[in-house]
Amino acid sequence: MIVEELLQEHAEARATGRVLSGQIAAYSEKRMGLAKERHDLMTRPLERLTETDPKIITLDRDIAACIEAAARLQPRAEQYFATVASIDVLVRKLEDYFNQVKLVEVPMAKSVAPPKLSKNETLMDAIEARRRRVRELAANNEAYRAAPQPSSVVLQAEIDRINAAAELGAPNAIDAIESGASLEWPTLDIDEAVWGGHGRIKVKTPDVMSILSYLFREQMIAAATKAIADAADDAAALSDADRARLIGEVDRDALAVQREEVALIKEAKAVGVPVSYRPDTDPRALLGLADELPAPSDPDLHRRKKR
C-alpha cells in the first residue's frame, strides 16, 4: 500500500513540477522578448526613446512582473522535483532492502497509533520533533562506534602479544652443537614481488618482534604501558560489550521514533498536510515490519538466509 502511494505521489509531483517548469520557461521567454523590444526602442536610429518614455516604463513594469512571477513559481517547482528525487531514493531503498533480506514470509510489527499532540503542537511540529530525535540518536550511534577502547584492554592485548612473541623468539642451537652451524634465530617467510613484475619470490627475514620480545620482554611491556597510558582516553572509552549494548539501545530507540514519525506523516497526509517521508526512513518503520528484521545497515543483512 505504501509503495503504491509513493508511486502515485511521485507521478503527481513530477507532473506538477513539469507544469510549473513550463510556466517558468514561458515567463522567461516573454521576459526576453520584452527585453529585446525595450532594447530596440532604446537604440533605434530615429526616435530613440528615453527611460522616462511611457512605452519604456510599461515594458519595465511587464519585465519586472515576468521576473517576479517566475521567481514565485521557482521554489514550488524545486519542491516538487525534490519530492520526486526523495521518493526515487526511498523506493530504491525499499527494493534493495527486500532484495537483500530475501524473506518468503514477512513478519509484521504491531500497528503504531499516531502519538497524541501536546497543547498547541501541530502535526508538523510533532513530525519535526521526531526527526530531530532521529538525528540525535544517529549522532549517539556514531559516537558509540567511534569511542576508543579502554586502555586496560589495549594494554592486556599488547602484553599477550609480546608474551606470545617471546615464546617464539628463543634461538635454536641444536644444529650449532651437532654440526657447528650458525645459531638459528627465528625468521619470517615473506612473499615478495620481483622487481619489474616478473613473478614472486619467497625470502626469509629475521622475526624482529619475536627476537626483541624474547630478549627485552620487560622493557617492551614497560614501553607499551607508557605509550598506551599517554594515548589513553578512558573517560570516553567503551568496552566491546558496552559498545554493543549502547548501539543496540540506540538502534531500537531510533526505530521506535521512526515508527511514530511514519504514523504522524500518515495522519498529516490524510488531512491534506503536504509532507513527505524522509529518503532514509528505516524500511521496517515505513512498511510496518517486525523489529527483529535486520536494519538496512546491519552487517549481517547480506548473509541472512531465506526462511
What would you note in describing this structure?
14% of the residues are buried. The protein has 307 residues and is mostly helical. The radius of gyration is 35 Å and the shape is elongated. Mean pLDDT is 92; it is low at 299-307. A hairpin with a 6-residue loop joins strand 1 and strand 2. The chain has a two-stranded antiparallel sheet. The protein folds into 3 domains: 1-101, Helix Hairpins, CATH 1.10.287; 109-147 and 238-307; 151-236, no CATH class. 64% of the residues lie in helices and 5% in strands.
* Low-pLDDT residue spans: 299-307
Helix share of residues?
55-70%
> What is the molecular shape?
elongated
Number of helices: 9
Distance between the termini: 24 Å
Taken as a percent bin, the fraction of beta residues is: under 5%
User: Which value, in Å, is the CA radius of gyration?
Assistant: 35 Å
Number of strands: 2
Q: Outline the biggest β-sheet.
A: 2 strands, antiparallel
Order of helices and strands: HHHHHEEHHHH
Task: Kindly name the structural category.
Answer: mainly alpha
Count the domains.
3
* Biggest sheet strand line-up: 1-2
Mean pLDDT, nearest integer? 92
